[in-house]
Amino acid sequence: MHSEEFRRHGHELVDWMADYLSGVGSLPITPDVGPGDIRRRLPVSPPNEGEPFAVLFDDFRELIVPGMTHWNHPGWFAYFPGNNSAPSILAEMLTAAMGAQCMSWATSPAATELEQVVMEWLRQMIGLPEEFVGVIQDTASTATLVALLSARERATDGASGRQGMEGGPGLTVYASAEAHSSIDKGAKLAGYGLDRLRRIPGDEAFALDPAALERAIQEDVASGLTPACVVASIGTTSSTAVDPVPVVAEICRRYGVWLHVDAAYAGSAAIVPELRGYFAGMDLADSVVLNPHKWLLTNFDCTAYYVRDRDALLSTFSLTPEYLRTVHDADVVNYRDWGIQLGRRFRGLKLWFVIRSYGVEGLRAVIRRHVGLAAELAGWVDQAPDFERMAPAPFGLVCFRYRPAGKSELELDGMNQRLLAEVNATRRVFLTHTRLGGRYVIRMAIGQRATEREHVVQAWELVRVAAGKLR
Amino acid sequence: MHSEEFRRHGHELVDWMADYLSGVGSLPITPDVGPGDIRRRLPVSPPNEGEPFAVLFDDFRELIVPGMTHWNHPGWFAYFPGNNSAPSILAEMLTAAMGAQCMSWATSPAATELEQVVMEWLRQMIGLPEEFVGVIQDTASTATLVALLSARERATDGASGRQGMEGGPGLTVYASAEAHSSIDKGAKLAGYGLDRLRRIPGDEAFALDPAALERAIQEDVASGLTPACVVASIGTTSSTAVDPVPVVAEICRRYGVWLHVDAAYAGSAAIVPELRGYFAGMDLADSVVLNPHKWLLTNFDCTAYYVRDRDALLSTFSLTPEYLRTVHDADVVNYRDWGIQLGRRFRGLKLWFVIRSYGVEGLRAVIRRHVGLAAELAGWVDQAPDFERMAPAPFGLVCFRYRPAGKSELELDGMNQRLLAEVNATRRVFLTHTRLGGRYVIRMAIGQRATEREHVVQAWELVRVAAGKLR
Predict the structure, then answer these.
(1) A110/B31 Cβ within 8 A
(2) pLDDT digits (tens, 9 = 90+) for B45-69
(3) The domain that contains B54 carries what CATH number?
(4) Which end of chain A is more exposed for a tag (fewer CB within 10 A), N or C?
(5) Residue A86 maps to a domain
């Protein structure tokens, strides 16, 4: 395809994209397809000869779009938000056109230095101390694995990575019972072993109990094990519970354990001064993760990983073979040494465009709107006689269930499962579930860029109507 | 930014992108900047209020573009190619606009099923047997780590992941002396330990010596260690050496060792029938990695990872907490269980657009052109009296050095280092180096989409002129 054809099709696509952005709210938020439906409509083998772009674009519109779940639909209340935004999309266009691979400073100096700048901007925005340095990772799962690997290397003074783990000490990891599954995955992959992850019980608000944490650490030490890492959550996935990080940090300090703070979703809210209190103790961490691709309107993937001890990161991930050496290595940041992947996309540009386009105040306004709507929804739940709120709602997530009188817990679980299915079957909103204290709970996460009060009102109305049908 | 503003700016950007694609060849391929030059021109703190997009776009053009290394410049002969193409960029635009997060089938059915389809198309294109299933990973580093982790779990029957590695057997990994540094990194991160990676000597063509491999395995077994994984390279990074995979596979079979084939760069060439011979034995692997983002014109990141035993992959990476369960889990592929990351971009679309837009024959023609140009360049090197070719050139890479008579090896190393710096200082082409057999070697990798014979001629002329100045 010549550049003039690209120009023509690019303009067509921009019009489609603009229409999509303004019109996605009128599409069904989830597709009406079953497993295999889309695959069956696609050829089993690739074409030998090239096809005109018009055919591809038609297929995209007719086969792919109707088969997508629309994460940027204003009726998005599922999981956590996965936002994009106009400036972010525009940046992704430029990034794609240049197609740079940003593994080293020399392979893209502007990309490396812009990443340094935006990570520094974001550090200031969330109030982390100056000693933290940041790098963009792809996902919080990766960032948490990076933290667990760094903690492993520190706890064994580098012996794990050099000599292997099999002759070394038994290493343990700690997190609350409600902490994210990426910690299990990370503990498994990093060689700690799933059995060495201690899930510490939570309090009534699902936050980690620090006394139980300290007991667990003491027991492990007494058994000859080496506590290596604690993952504290600020905003768990199930209910946005906030662990008591200052107390946890003091325990970590006392036992010489790496403290990783998982604020993947909620961390973006640290840019709002009146919400900063939830992030107390984050400044005491060894590493922190938050996802601008969740709540800061930046296209997935864009995970911000901050680490206090840059050497602990570099000594875990840095390896430079001859074919990657450059004359500048001593004077620059080579982000390939800051994580698992060698190859890297130019991800700083979109975050730069977003922060500059919205301004810090503009981004605060978005988060304030969502948090305000969540507070309003929490109030409606609290006032509805047959509904029960299942957890505090400090950020944008409200956890609740339908609870008519005279039903057993088992019946309530089943009713709420049916209620959720009924609501989602409207395809006008999308909510998901979790379990809290063993109970089936509906999660309604308010955080999509375009979600306004009317969409929350509509969703709550759909919930109440569906509940009414269950009687 | 409203959708109409997005539309206006999107059109502006498409024009810039089309001009960039057609004009990048006239830009300096590498920027004339030193460490910190770009960073110093950017504000140290983020703006409080939003800025107009016109200002951002101006800054992009004036500060960022002149600071970039242009990977899609036709004078690109550095590292390996990192290609994009018009259909791939168009797909990235649509992907960015939808902003879907494709962790599960339910979070984006069309993305999951399209990924299945294009991975199946590519499997056919490269001639892997039907039992292989594919998944798109971000990078070959990640894919190789995934292979090492799967091999670790298989070698310990899952005990490593469950109980941790510290009480288990000592596990070993094998690769040629020339294999990629991601294997060191993976052996370190996966807990094998760097010391447990056996670098097997190569022959005169830098390919792994299978007799030495078998001896190393036998010695390790005799020492009570457990050989877990062999990484065979088809196309090493330094010189595109091809390991004798059929023999290696037979050794792996005999000792029950996981065979991972790293064809990150060269794997794309397996779509060309007359080059298929280099990939003999790939069908006997347990896992294979190749990067469509290198030579198949698909924007980074797009790594194809194929595995024979899907269960070995899933049992290593699958973990499903309550908040991620869906009613379809039993009937669908949830790609979050196929790798390290939970969150995933919609990466199948760009590969689909590329394969359909070029057709298999069109992609073959691109690779044939590059391989033909490399053969031609290799011939020029061979005929030039003061130059020496340093390795076979089966694909698009030619390794050579300047070798005037009467110079010591040390002098030659220094001369070639200066020669390379001189050539790159023209900023018209970009070549990189490696060391082979201890000697400083210039690598010229022909594989950029827009590279034609004239660009190779020009580069070779620049090399000879620079060599002339060294006399």
Answers:
(1) yes
(2) 999 999 999 999 999 999 999 999 9
(3) 1.20.1340.10
(4) C
(5) no
Q: What is residue A328's predicted lDDT score, i.e. its pLDDT?
A: 83
Q: What pLDDT does A324 receive? A: 77
pLDDT band of B323, cuts 50, 70, 90: confident
Q: Does B394 lie in the same domain as B255?
A: no
Mutate to test the interface with B, among A93, A137, A346 (most CBs of B within 10 A): A93
A11/B14 touch (CB, cutoff 8 Å), yes or no: yes
Q: ipTM of this complex > 0.90? A: yes
Q: Which domain holds residue B373?
A: 359-470
In a domain, A305, yes or no: yes
Paired tokens of B186? 């993976």
State the total domains in chain A: 3
Share of chain B above pLDDT 90, in %: 96
User: Is residue A94 domain-resident?
Assistant: no
Same domain, B60 and B140: no
Res. A331: pLDDT tops 90: no
Residues of B in contact with A125 (CB under 8 A): 46
> B99 and A299: CB-CB below 8 Å?
yes
**Closest CB to A138 among B109, B138, B317:** B138
Q: pLDDT digits over B179-192, tens only?
A: 999 999 999 999 99
In a domain, A136, yes or no: yes
Same domain? For B330 and B443 the reply is no
Contacts of A173 in chain B (CB under 8 A): none
Averaged pLDDT, B184-207: 96
- In three-state form (DSSP H/G/I as H, E/B as E, the rest C), the secondary structure along chain A is CCHHHHHHHHHHHHHHHHHHHHHHHHCCCCCCCCCCCCHHHCCCCCCCCCCCHHHHHHHHHHHHHHHCCCCCCCCEECCCCCCCCHHHHHHHHHHHHHCCCCCCCCCCHHHHHHHHHHHHHHHHHHCCCCCCEEEEECCHHHHHHHHHHHHHHHHCCCHHHHHCCCCCCCEEEEEECCCCHHHHHHHHHCCCCHHHEEEECECCCCCECHHHHHHHHHHHHHCCCEEEEEEEEECCCCCCCECCHHHHHHHHHHHCCEEEEECCCHHHHHHCHHHHHHHCCHHHCCEEEECHHHHCCCCCCCEEEEECCHHHHHHHHCCCCHHHCCCCCCCCCCHHHHCCCCCCCCCHHHHHHHHHHHHHHHHHHHHHHHHHHHHHHHHHHHHCCCEEECCCCCCCEEEEEECCCCCCHHHHHHHHHHHHHHHHHCCCCEEEEEEECCEEEEEEECCCCCCCHHHHHHHHHHHHHHHHHHC
Whole-structure pTM value: 0.97
Mean pLDDT for A31-37 is: 96
Looking at residue B401, its pLDDT comes to 98
- Same domain? For B258 and B127 the reply is yes
Question: Taking residues B311-336, what's their average pLDDT?
Answer: 87
Q: Are residues B113 and B227 in the same domain?
A: yes
Tens digits of per-residue pLDDT, A344-403?
Answer: 999 999 999 999 999 999 999 999 999 999 999 999 999 999 999 999 999 999 999 999
The enclosing domain of A443 has a CATH number of 3.90.1150.10
pLDDT band at B1 (very low <50, low <70, confident <90, very high): confident
* C-alpha distance from A404 to closest chain B C-alpha (Å): 24
